[in-house]
Amino acid sequence: MALRVYNTLSGEKEVFIPLIPGRAGMYVCGVTVYDYCHIGHARANVVFDVIYRYLGYAGYDVTYVRNYTDIDDKIINRANREGVDYRTISDRYIQAFDEDMERLGLAKPTVEPKATDHIGGIIAIIEALIAKGHAYESEGDVYYAVETFPDYLKLSKRNLDEMKAGARVEVGDKKRHPMDFALWKDSKPGEPWWQSPWGKGRPGWHIECSAMSMEFLGMTFDFHGGGKDLIFPHHENEIAQSEAANGCQFVRYWLHNGFVNINSEKMSKSLGNFFTIRQVLEKFDPETLRFFILSAHYRSPIDFSDQNLDEAQAGLERIYSFLAALDDILLENPAPPELSAGESPAGAGQELQDKLENLIPRFCEAMDDDFNTAQALGVLFDVVRAGNRFLAEMGDPDPAGLSLIARTRDRFAEVGQVLGLFGSRPAAWLEGIKSSKADQINISPAEIEGLIVERAEARKAKNFKRSDEIRDLLLEKGVQLLDSAQGTTWKIR
């Protein structure tokens, strides 16, 4: 199956045909670095990280560019409030962004340019737009004239006349049309500035992405991504200025991830439901947040809530518990034999083998359908269900069973590399989750283990009253004991 992606520009799924055979160029709008990142940033960056990984897995040589907007009104305002240089603010939050993305397991893009390093390229594009009649200087500012570009709003499917009717130009306004947007801004007293043909100033927001993407990917490239909130005006304006300047198509496939809602409401600081990545990771494991994001199709909205994060964690625990069981068996049998020709396990082993043989084809089929990570995870759960049935009936593993277990573990490592999941040692990850849960109910794992030992001694002495008291005490605290032939384990309910 060929890779098909939903192109916002056409409103349809299209077969991906790279501009250059065997290669893929992708630009994703990065963050404006004036504050800590929120979970909307987490979603966008995890989504495009997986797209980047999958394109590489599918055999493409990928150039992935993700920028930093390091000059902006918000950065300047924060710098003024703190009485520091704008670079102090931008450097601080670039570092914070990098730390957050590392915790979420993101692969580093090929290039991470900063807007302020591309002032020369920005000025060159503006000069070309003025020369071609698409931009004009007005009292030290330079504006893009939207009426000169007939395809303006082709991405967002809006109507310029209707938008003009809903806007107005104030007396003395520098713009000729209310929808004209700034390419260059005259520097106000105390603001950072760069010298230009129009005087001291700084770039507008939209122009920087055109300059940086063209620098590293050329005038036309394959993928441009970002959140749906960027379709208008940011991406719309990028198209207008880039295609007017270059006279050719800017981007071939536009990809946009859906919004994050908080308890079914739009995330907003004014509503008090705004969460930074750091706040979320105080309560939830980073891989749990990543798993939650990938559990929905990237274009669909997702509803962030503690309950939904708990459900995501439970799903990830199921997979890690399965992998831990495989690791325990492989630890006892470090060199699983290869299967002989025609040799295969019976019963549930045959079911697992069938699921395993189809895992990679089905996984790729899901990812080739517009990067459907939700469906891809469903494929993995099918294997986990079959694998748990196999382990339950296996008894002492025979050569065929051991070979199947080893191949299952390898396949999960393979798809985990694409999804950015399952990179931890399963037993350690599970212990970490148990400890975190125990901390939340104010009881330490050591206390729990101590009570389990005391309970075992009470049962051995036939003091079943005390044994039951310990079980009930832990249950009141939310700790469930799980007795088996191998001993007693526990989990947080």
TrEMBL record:
Domain Cysteinyl-tRNA synthetase class Ia DALR: 362-430
EC number: 6.1.1.16
Gene Ontology biological process terms in this record: cysteinyl-tRNA aminoacylation
Motif 'KMSKS' region per record, residues: 266-270
Coiled-coil spans in chain: none
Catalysed conversion reaction: tRNA(Cys) + L-cysteine + ATP = L-cysteinyl-tRNA(Cys) + AMP + diphosphate
Subunit structure: Monomer.
Family: Belongs to the class-I aminoacyl-tRNA synthetase family.
The name this protein goes by in its record: Cysteine--tRNA ligase
Protein's organism: Oryzomonas rubra
